[in-house]
Amino acid sequence: MPRIVGIDHLVLSVGDFGRSKSFYNKLLTFLGFKLKHEYDDMAGWSNGKTLFWIAAADTEGRRHKYRKGDIYFTDPDGMKLEAMIWAPPEKPSAKKRRSTPQRKSKKKSKR
């Protein structure tokens, strides 16, 4: 499962708080976040390292639609979101590594 690391918190202003809260709850729950803070006009989810907030936009903010380039992924307000994970290459497993045959030593038993 992808994990976001290295961001303390992120806040997005949204036009329809109820609709966006439902949308982000499904998305963030899928990504391993849990709803930790809930207010009438704000909500915050955490995965233990990053806190993701949405907040109701003010009157002026609700009059403007967000648009940035072509669509990759958009939320209910039409904001383009892009996510990426970086994971270091996996270390070869013991089966994949070449190993030098080792001699088994025979122990002499005392009789």
Strands in their spatial order, largest beta sheet = 1-4-3-2
Mean pLDDT: 78
Q: Give start-end ranges of low-pLDDT stretches.
A: none
Number of strands: 4
Rg for CA atoms: 25 Å
What proportion of the residues is helical, as a percent range? 10-25%
CATH topology: 2,3-Dihydroxybiphenyl 1,2-Dioxygenase, domain 1
Which percent band covers the strand fraction?
Answer: 15-25%
Tell me what the CATH architecture is. Answer: Roll
How would you describe what is shown here?
This protein has 111 residues and is α+β, with helices and mostly antiparallel strands. It has a single domain, classed as 2,3-Dihydroxybiphenyl 1,2-Dioxygenase, domain 1 (Roll), CATH 3.10.180. The protein has helices at residues 17-30, 59-62, and strands at residues 9-14, 34-38, 42-46, 51-56. A 4-stranded mixed β-sheet has the order 1-4-3-2, covered by helices on one side. The longest helix has 14 residues, at 17-30. It starts with 8 loop residues before the first strand and ends in a 49-residue tail after the last helix. The mean pLDDT is 78.
List its traits.
4-stranded mixed β-sheet; alpha+beta; elongated; 4 strands; 111 residues; 20% strand; 2,3-Dihydroxybiphenyl 1,2-Dioxygenase, domain 1; single chain; 2 helices
Reconstruct the topology from this structure.
Layout: E1 9-14, H1 17-30, E2 34-38, E3 42-46, E4 51-56, H2 59-62
Parallel strand pairs: 1-4
Antiparallel strand pairs: 2-3, 3-4
Summarize the structure.
With 111 residues, the chain is of the alpha+beta class. It is built from 2 helices and 4 strands; from the N terminus they run βαβββα.
